[in-house]
From TrEMBL:
CDD domains: 4HBT (cd00586). One of its GO terms (molecular function) is fatty acyl-CoA hydrolase activity. The keyword Cell cycle does not apply. Belongs to the 4-hydroxybenzoyl-CoA thioesterase family. The lineage of its organism: Bacteria, Pseudomonadati, Pseudomonadota, Gammaproteobacteria, Alteromonadales. Pfam families: 4HBT_2 (PF13279). It comes from the Bacteria. This is Acyl-CoA thioesterase. Keywords: Hydrolase. PANTHER family: 4-HYDROXYBENZOYL-COA THIOESTERASE FAMILY MEMBER, NOVEL THIOESTERASE SUPERFAMILY DOMAIN AND SAPOSIN A-TYPE DOMAIN CONTAINING PROTEIN (0610012H03RIK).
Length: 140
């Protein structure tokens, strides 16, 4: 499936994300995904605050992470979030690369679905969300 839109963020690995070997703990990778996902959603005109104003939450319902190589303290990385689908769910893919070498370190994927404040899952994205994403995609 094609990359519809993407956003990159640069992150310097902080000390509080690493273990005694100065390797990033595996549970911190989703945090890096979240930083890039927030930038992508902002670029698409649907930051979480807008989604909430429209009356929907978009929780992560599935996540996959492939750890290809470890990340280390002070390493600079680039995290790319790529939108693949938005009509039924937000299907976002992630690639973490070393900033200098551009070597792929980690790959990942999340699915998010629209949920009403009452907890009702929406099996299709709300029309307002679809319109905002399509407007943003048209301007790219």
């Amino acid at each position: 499936m094609a990359e519809l839109a993407w956003a990159d963020v640069e992150i310097d690995i902080p000390f509080y994300d690493v273990d005694t070997y100065r390797v990033v703990w595996h549970g911190n990778y989703p945090k890096y995904f979240e930083v890039s996902r927030c930038k992508l959603l902002e670029q698409l005109g649907i930051p979480y605050s807008t989604l909430e104003t429209l009356g929907f939450f978009y929780p992560v319902v599935a996540m996959e992470v492939k750890y290809l190589k470890p990340l280390h303290f002070t390493q600079r990385i680039v995290v790319r979030a790529s939108l693949r689908e938005y009509r039924n769910k937000l299907d976002i893919r992630y690639i973490i690369r070393d900033y200098q070498s551009q070597e792929v370190i980690t790959k990942g994927h999340t699915d998010q679905v629209a949920v009403s404040p009452e907890g009702d899952i929406q099996y299709e994205a709300p029309e307002q969300v679809v319109q905002l994403v399509e407007q943003a995609l048209a301007s790219l």
